[in-house]
Design a protein that fits this description.
Layout lengths: L4 H16 E2 L2 E2 L11 H15 L13 H6 L8 H16 L16 E2 L8 H4 L4 H21 L6 H26 L2 E7 L3 H10 L6 H11 L1 H9 L10 H4 L4 E7 L30 H14 L2 H6 L4 H25 L13 E2 L5 E2 H18 L3 H17 L20 E5 L10 E5 L2 H15 L3 H20 L30 H19 L6 H23 L7 H20 L4 H26 L3
Antiparallel strand pairs: 1-2, 3-9, 4-5, 6-7, 8-9
Length: about 625
């Protein structure tokens, strides 16, 4: 892998500090203006690496690396950096808390009108959105983890009070964001012969068999998920659909809507989180918002969250309910995406949603959920390769790895991005709102790296890492190169020269996703790669031969023929022991060690034969 995540992340930190911290204050904003999502993305460009990569930690001032201090010099020294970040984080939470103490999760300037020219009402801009719930969970977990460790090295009473105050604020917002996700879960139930039903069956029926047969097979495949939705989902939205799911003639889909679902009940909680707002969102899943919700819920159950004990008892209760929805949603879309015995629906690009809208980007979202499910069921190498083939094809179709020489529709997925309506947003007055996404490149890079972590086959892993390098080169071309925002993203004309070169201000939406990609690359680099079965067998065979030759040298009395030879044979024995120790986890290292041992044993054998006069 040629990405070099450490250096790239350090460069992003330097640029982020230069742009964000001026005249002693943290300045939110960017190309898309200031809102609860963009401001969190800006902070996570610093906080995500600082809490997910050990070498980037900022919560222990005495342990901060020198190159990190150099890149973050605009934020101060090793003692000032964590304190100034705390002030910026506290200001973010205050900015998006209502006067009555209710955390706000509005989409703000990220909302667009689905009807060109119509003005968006302020009540619409204030609507809560799943993207804000999700990124707040990620940021608040980072804050709570940061404060728990930083508190251990703080001695000044006033600073301890600031740390405690920030942690209380973060916990309040974290709980509110979890409640928001619980109330945004959607179960869309429909007849098999409805528009939704026909689209679903068209997607899964890759073998073009009679529709009624496929309908019965889909129902059978989703039987357990159906039962758990009816019986186990008890709080928040999605819990009132049991009677409809009981009908054997119905199909369904589940996931997250764009915001709090219309008529979603309030969640009973002992936590002080202010008012639980009424919902307006359509009771149907959106693939994009489903994916961002799943990523946030994964963070709630991560090893770091468990080891540091970041959740209190009430948050743990809510996290269990979200984890149930995570498992059901992941299983549902993985079942649909890989349905049948022939070509998977996932492999039939582009993915077509039940509302009839189809995009290659949707295929990438489904591929991510299929990969998450494969991690839990330990998928075969052949299945992982099939997902890899989908990622490669998506890179080609979106003109990341295939050259684009003139304006073409395939580039629209990058700029201006995919644009889809948010049904129900018009209920508070004004036009139907829309959401725009254009992050296919960094998301594809991240998914490719994650798949490489799962693959044990050396050739397949190498191919995926090569693909990630190619996507990264595409991302580097899109870096802003001039003015204060240089070193950040996004400038689409850098990769597609025929696009207008009029983007020179940072997009925190895009830059944060590039940071996510680099954090994943750092994790891939730091982990021991999956052991190759082939190399393991080769190492075992080589060890067997080396052990035999070593024992023969001992039997023939080589150790009695001089101190130098005795020391050499002891070293050989030590290296054989080392090879046995690493054979299972790092078979390639074991092969290299044993090959060197065999060469040295052969030289000893040849010397012994020469001494005895045997040729």
């Amino acid at each position: 892998m040629q990405i070099q995540p450490r250096q790239q992340l350090l460069d992003i930190w330097q640029a982020t500090a230069r742009v964000s911290y001026r005249d002693g204050a943290w300045l939110p904003g960017g190309r898309d203006g200031s809102n609860s999502i963009s401001d969190a993305e800006q902070l996570l460009c610093i906080m995500a690496p600082a809490t997910e990569i050990l070498l980037f930690r900022l919560d222990r001032p005495d342990a901060v690396a020198n190159d990190v201090l150099e890149k973050l010099s605009d934020l101060g020294d090793n003692l000032q950096i964590p304190q100034r970040l705390m002030r910026a984080l506290s200001a973010y939470i205050d900015r998006y808390t209502a006067p009555d103490g209710t955390p706000m999760f509005s989409g703000g300037s990220y909302f667009r009108s689905d009807v060109e020219g119509e003005e968006i009402k302020q009540a619409q801009r204030d609507l809560d959105v799943v993207d804000s719930f999700s990124i707040s969970i990620t940021l608040m977990l980072a804050i709570v983890g940061f404060t728990k460790i930083f508190r251990q090295v703080v001695t000044r009473a006033t600073l301890v009070e600031q740390v405690d105050a920030l942690e209380r604020k973060a916990n309040r917002r974290l709980t509110a964001a979890m409640l928001g996700l619980l109330r945004s879960f959607a179960v869309n139930v429909f007849n098999a012969d409805s528009k939704y039903g026909r689209e679903l069956i068209r997607t899964v029926n890759q073998e073009r068999r009679p529709a009624h047969q496929v309908v019965e097979e889909v129902r059978e495949a989703l039987l357990e998920i159906n039962a758990r939705l009816r019986d186990d989902v008890q709080i928040g939205s999605g819990a009132a659909e049991g009677s409809e799911l009981d009908n054997p003639n119905r199909l369904f889909e589940c996931g997250w809507s764009w915001g709090i679902v219309r008529d979603a009940p309030e969640v009973e909680t002992s936590a002080e989180v202010g008012v639980q707002k009424p919902g307006t969102a359509q009771n149907a899943p959106y693939l994009y918002f489903t994916t961002v919700a799943l990523d946030a819920i994964q963070a709630l159950s991560s090893e770091r969250t468990r080891l540091l004990g970041l959740l209190d008892s009430e948050q743990s209760r809510l996290a269990q309910s979200l984890q149930l929805r995570f498992e059901l949603t992941r299983s549902y879309w993985a079942t649909i995406g890989t349905f049948g015995s022939g070509r998977w629906p996932l492999e039939d690009l582009p993915w077509r949603a039940t509302d009839g809208i189809e995009f290659d980007y949707f295929s990438l979202l489904i591929a991510g959920m299929v990969m998450q499910n494969m991690q839990s069921v330990r998928a075969s190498t052949s299945d992982l390769r099939r997902v890899g083939g989908v990622l490669e094809e998506l890179a080609n179709r979106s003109r990341i790895t295939r050259r684009s020489t003139e304006p073409e529709a395939a580039v629209d997925v990058h700029h201006p991005g995919l644009h889809f309506p948010l049904e129900g947003s018009e209920d508070v007055g004004g036009p139907t709102l829309a959401w725009t996404v254009g992050d296919i490149s960094p998301l594809l890079c991240k998914r490719t790296l994650n798949l490489a972590r799962m693959v044990s086959d050396g050739a397949a892993r190498s191919r995926l890492l090569e693909l990630s390098d190619t996507i990264w080169e595409h991302l580097r071309e899109r870096m802003i190169l001039v003015d204060d925002d240089r070193g950040l993203w996004d400038r689409p004309s850098g990769a597609f020269e025929y696009l207008a070169d009029d983007f020179h201000e940072v997009s925190w939406y895009y830059t944060k996703r590039v940071v996510d990609c680099l954090v994943t690359a750092a994790q891939v680099t730091s982990e021991t790669p999956p052991a190759s079965d082939l190399l393991g067998r080769i190492a075992a065979d080589l060890l067997n031969e080396a052990d035999h030759l070593y024992d023969r040298e001992l039997l023939n009395g080589t150790t009695t023929r001089g101190e130098r030879l005795r020391v050499e044979l002891e070293r050989i024995g030590t290296e054989l022991g080392r090879a046995r120790t690493v054979r299972r986890e790092r078979p390639g290292v074991a092969v290299a060690l044993v090959e060197e041992v065999l060469r040295r044993l052969d030289r000893l054998s040849a010397a012994r034969r020469a001494d005895s006069g045997v040729t």
